[in-house]
């Protein structure tokens, strides 16, 4: 339910950030996230927790959506692939550090402190983002440095983002993401308890690489044929169908 609500809210948010502005939309979603986390930390029954999680997820999806729109405002279509890759690099740190941090909260405190701390951390880390949104245009109008970025890593596929940047060819790049099917298919014979953890890791790496390429190329292809004024709404529609599919898949997986 929360996933579908998050996807549907993108359409409303697209109109908000087009009329009011990117900063206002981002702050509105941040407020929803913080409220959801506070309610999570103080809830006393499952019904309240469900509502709080729905609020949190709508705000979380909305914040990520605004951040994904920012590269379209800052770059040309030719350089946009690299910027979309840079947007995903924080997931490297969170993937590695997240489980350890969650374990520390679980063993030393409780889930209420975890949600409360997350509300504080999200607010603290979002302040610099708001500052960038407010000052980007004025600063880089004087110092045209927004196109000299040369990241050493962009998400899990730096070679693909650079390839599209210099060749302009994305169709064959999308075809290489077929590895996601290979990684998923290999989980069938390797699902036994005796399977070595290294083999399972290999399958997840294949799935991750394919997912990254699918996601970034999908956003790029969606933005390419429309004008700048239409980017927010087409990306929202693209995300809506993706999140609805994710919700259906999660429901099926839960039933199995």
Commentary on this structure:
The protein is mainly alpha-helical. The protein has a single domain, classed as Growth Hormone, Chain: A (Up-down Bundle), CATH 1.20.1250.20. It has helices at residues 2-19, 22-42, 46-74, 80-87, 90-108, 111-142, 158-167, 171-176, 179-186, 197-223, 231-255. It is globular, with a radius of gyration of 20 Å. Mean pLDDT is 74; it is low at 138-162. The chain crosses the membrane at residues 19-39, 46-67, 113-134, 202-224, 231-253.
Tally the beta strands: 0
Rounded radius of gyration (Å): 20 Å
Biggest sheet, open or closed, and with what strands and sense?
Answer: none
CATH 2nd-level architecture = Up-down Bundle
Q: Strand pairing plus helix content: what structural class?
A: mainly alpha
Helicity, as a percent range: over 70%
CATH class: Mainly Alpha
Percent of residues in β-strands: under 5%
How confident overall, as mean pLDDT? 74
SSE string, helices as H and strands as E: HHHHHHHHHHH
C-alpha end-to-end distance: 18 Å
Contiguous low-pLDDT stretches (5 residues minimum) are: 138-162
Counting DSSP H or I runs of 4 or more residues, the number of helices is 11
**Remind me, CATH topology?**
Growth Hormone, Chain: A
Under CATH, the homologous superfamily reads: MFS general substrate transporter like domains
Keywords: Membrane, Transmembrane, Transmembrane helix
InterPro entries: MFS_trans_sf
Subcellular location: Membrane
Protein name: Major facilitator superfamily domain-containing protein
